[in-house]
Design goal:
The chain has 301 residues and is of the alpha/beta class. The chain has nine helices and 14 strands. The longest helix has 14 residues.
């Protein structure tokens, strides 16, 4: 019988190799307004909510902030009124592969980490942290495209991932005159982190992310205003045939979580690449890290 043993970059790594030790904790009675300040100040996508005994009881993400904005909740409402409970945890000694599967199975963007020995809260692990580890491995690898400048695709002996193979092909967009409430409904329905905004000609002219909406909420902007009022511009894009390694580098340098993918003209958007997509590949660059090793094993019948 033939058994296929697949290996990948994450196999020998532990959660402790990738987690961030900075944990942003706020008390359950703190206001949503205060929470938004913390999200923006520390450039995080979620807050750990603790009770009066400093024990974790929930999580407030940008998605929860957006929901409060859409529902018209006063911004001075307490964080425990919108938090998701309980927080999900893993152990610092868990394999990174196991943690990634846990995140995917539960449909979450992050896990909080307890120390393997003490059991105390030790850090947080999110998709960008995993991508960062993958990128460091690829950058140091002797087969890295970044370490072989001038090598053409034709002469390259390594089969590398392209953006085309990893991106999400479903791209939703809203018109620049659509209301923010419509944008939030679309983001919630399709579980997107950002929405592409098109002008009157159907060409991409901006992006509205959950960060943009959190800031809009904080500044007291009416959610019935047009999308063009709060969208960010320009739209960060890359070509569908760009190497994944190059796309990840572009996101890291620009400090962004996604790229919109074009084919041919930059206006022809055919997909989106997020850090979550990049983490899902478990390689970051080429098929060398996910190649199959074929083993022939004899079993007694």
């Amino acid at each position: 019988m033939v058994r296929i043993d697949r290996k990948n970059t994450l196999r020998n790594l532990k959660v402790s190799d990738a987690m961030r030790r900075q944990i942003i904790r706020l008390e359950q009675a703190d206001s949503i307004d205060y929470g938004i300040n913390a999200l923006i100040k520390y450039k995080v996508s979620a807050l750990l909510i603790v009770d009066q005994h400093n024990q974790p009881i929930g999580v407030v993400s940008k998605t929860d902030i957006m929901g409060a904005y859409y529902a018209g909740l006063p911004i001075d409402s307490s964080l425990d009124s919108i938090m998701i409970s309980p927080p999900l945890f893993c152990i610092s000694g868990d394999s990174l592969e196991t943690a990634l599967e846990q995140m995917r199975t539960n449909g979450v963007y992050r896990l909080y980490v307890n120390d393997e020995e003490s059991g105390e809260l030790a850090g947080v692990l999110a998709y960008p942290d995993i991508v960062g580890v993958l990128y460091r491995f690829c950058h140091q690898c002797e087969y890295s495209h970044l370490n072989t400048p001038g090598l053409s695709n034709k002469d390259d002996p390594v089969h590398r991932f392209s953006v085309r193979e990893v991106m999400t092909t479903q791209v939703r967009r809203v018109g620049m005159y659509e209301k923010l409430t419509t944008v939030m409904e679309q983001l919630s329905a399709y579980r997107f982190g950002a929405m592409l905004v098109s002008d009157e000609s159907g060409l991409p002219c901006g992006v509205i992310s959950k960060t943009d909406l959190a800031l809009t909420y904080k500044h007291g902007v009416d959610p019935e205003v047009e999308a063009q009022t709060v969208m960010s511009s320009p739209v960060f894009t890359c070509d569908v045939n760009l190497l994944l390694e190059e796309a990840i580098k572009k996101m890291i340098i620009a400090d962004i979580h996604r790229l919109f993918i074009h084919k041919g003209e930059t206006s022809n958007i055919v997909g989106v690449l997020s850090l979550s997509d990049a983490a899902r590949v478990r390689s970051g660059s080429c098929y060398g890290c996910v190649s199959s090793r074929i083993k022939v094993v004899d079993y007694d019948v």
